Amino acid sequence: IDETLLGNRKTVVGNNDEVTGDLLVDFQNPANSQLGTIRINVRTLETDNEFRTRALRGQILQADQAEFEFAEFVPSALTGLPDTVILGDSFDFQITGNLTVHGVTHEVTFNAVITPISETRLEGSASTIVLYRDFGMTIPEAPGVADVSEEVTLQIDFVALVAEGETLP
């Protein structure tokens, strides 16, 4: 999210590595691939400033409340998948589903890019833009902070590996 801090425009980035999810990839017929629920622990989001991190977790996301601890994305459709997958070649597609943050659910579409590194490893990213107010959140007033953007870019960068004990057909 963008804001003006002490007169300077700044992009605030929140990071988190407590993300879980499942992906089933069909290399022979990519249209049969499936993506399970993605779950993010928002209690562990970090920014570059401890005061901002506390405000984000406690006041904005209210992640200290059990019902708001996790954000979830439940995919309903994967569109634009290629007919074939070639190891090492990236491809773009869209992931549509229901995103729940702060107890509010909205349908969103992520634009994704994946690179199949091998039949056991995928690397990629997906992003979308949402309005924080759509999820019932407000930004508290803070000294020196102004012009906080309505838009929030959500991005996930990931590496997907074959689960231990699993094999590909």
Provide a brief overview of the structure:
With 169 residues, the chain is mostly beta strands.
Which descriptors apply to this entry?
169 residues, mainly beta, seven-stranded antiparallel sheet, elongated
H/E topology pattern: EEEEEEHEEEEEE
Biggest β-sheet description:
7 strands, antiparallel
Rg, Cα atoms, Å: 18 Å
Integer average pLDDT? 91
Please provide the count of β strands: 12
- Give the % helix: under 10%
Main sheet: strand order: 3-6-7-8-9-10-12
Q: Identify low-pLDDT runs.
A: none
What structural class is derived from the secondary structure elements?
mainly beta
Describe the overall structure.
7% of the residues lie in helices and 46% in strands. By secondary structure, it is mainly beta. A seven-stranded antiparallel β-sheet has the order 3-6-7-8-9-10-12, with no helix packed on it. A three-stranded antiparallel β-sheet has the order 2-1-11, with no helix packed on it. Strands 4-5 form a two-stranded antiparallel sheet. The longest helix is centred in the first third of the chain and has 11 residues. It is elongated and about 55 Å long.
